[in-house]
Input
Amino acid sequence: MICLQCFGVYAKGRLNERQMIADPDLGYTIGCPIGCLGSLISQHKHILVMFEEPEEYDRYHRFATEECLLQAGGVLCPQPGCGAGILPDNPGERKIKCVQCSYVFCKNCHQGYHEDEDCETEEAFESLTTNQALQATVVSNPEMALQARWQEQSSIAIKVMTKPCPKCRSPTERDGGCMHMECTRCNFDWCWICQSKWTRECMASHWFT
Output
């Protein structure tokens, strides 16, 4: 037995942690707090009672849609401020282009597209940066906390304003000119639009797009 108010707090916590259940028959729902089998909520009106605030219900609806997309083999665009849902035409293809913001990324690591199939280096760098920021925030030092926030904002700014070289993954910013990029680190010639090796097709299609 549990009162409606406490169950609502439990449900909102599960929603915020994205721990609700995507059931094929009942949709995005929730069950007994102690995990009893066959206890999933089957009435949508009960979901409306739990998430009565418009912001909560909108988040519930968005999370449910994203979960449905992910279970269908889709991906979410990792570009900050986007998050569009994408169903790849070829499930085995690693190179994904967002249909909304045109960001090209790797399906495996969700970072900017890279030609080599090894994602460990960039994942390790991302993890190290996050851990450093978290450690700095935990310390009760205002200057270090400010530095951690600055690092986080800088990381977001770099991701939004740059694209990685498809070969060595060095962040690259384009400030004008054509779409033909030459990496100053590894000298790789690549296309800003396709985020892959520069070809005659790139030259013909979007040299000055």
In short: The longest strand covers residues 21-23. Residues 122 and 142 are 29 Å apart (CA to CA). Residues 75-118 form one domain.
